[in-house]
Design goal:
Layout lengths: L1 H13 L20 E8 L6 E8 L3 E7 L20 E7 L2 H13 L19 E9 L2 E5 L3 H4 L1 H14 L5
Antiparallel strand pairs: 1-2, 1-5, 2-3, 3-4, 5-6
């Protein structure tokens, strides 16, 4: 009986019926708890130019850009470095339905797909780095690798979001 139970659990897991398996291509529900944070760095310039965009499901968008380490790390402590004070912040409120459309587009292009984690490109990008963290419909996603290397298609869509809110015409 014990062997039959183990075989049934293994078969269910292989069939995709396990609590650890979730469909990463979901319909995004409008929620104030959804958020996406995108970090973009240009490494071909000295000092490193950084941009960070945080989108919240309630329509709040914050863009931070400059050369300060504070853009990518709120707890940075190297205040003696040049460019420490070089940080510009823009905060705007947009229609939550528009933010939800952005979230849905990113999900459709594989934002929550964990299958691509730890996959590297044959030609690594050294001039640009793109990172993302997100929580959408209670599904958390963090990728430490450069998305330009892991998923260039998703990277271009994330970069489009950064461009959309960098110098918006309101």
């Amino acid at each position: 009986m014990k062997k039959i139970l183990i075989a049934a659990v293994a078969l269910a897991a292989l069939a995709g019926c396990g609590p650890f398996w979730m469909n990463p291509y979901i319909t995004v529900e409008e929620s104030r708890l959804n958020w996406v944070e995108i970090h973009y760095y240009r490494l071909d310039k000295t000092p490193v130019y950084r941009k960070a965009v945080r989108l919240s499901g309630d329509g709040f968008v914050e863009l931070r850009k400059g050369t300060s380490e504070l853009i990518s790390n709120d707890f940075a402590k190297h205040n003696e470095l040049d460019g420490w004070e070089n940080i510009k912040t823009q905060r705007v409120h947009v229609d939550p339905a528009h933010i939800n459309d952005i979230f849905q587009n990113l999900v459709n292009h594989g934002l929550l797909d964990q299958e691509k984690t730890f996959k590297k490109a044959k030609n690594p990008r050294k001039d640009r780095v793109l990172g993302v963290k997100a929580t959408i419909n209670n599904m958390a996603y963090t990728l430490q690798d450069n998305i330009f290397e892991v998923d260039p298609d998703l990277a271009e869509h994330l970069l489009d979001v950064v461009r959309e809110f960098d110098n918006p015409t309101l």
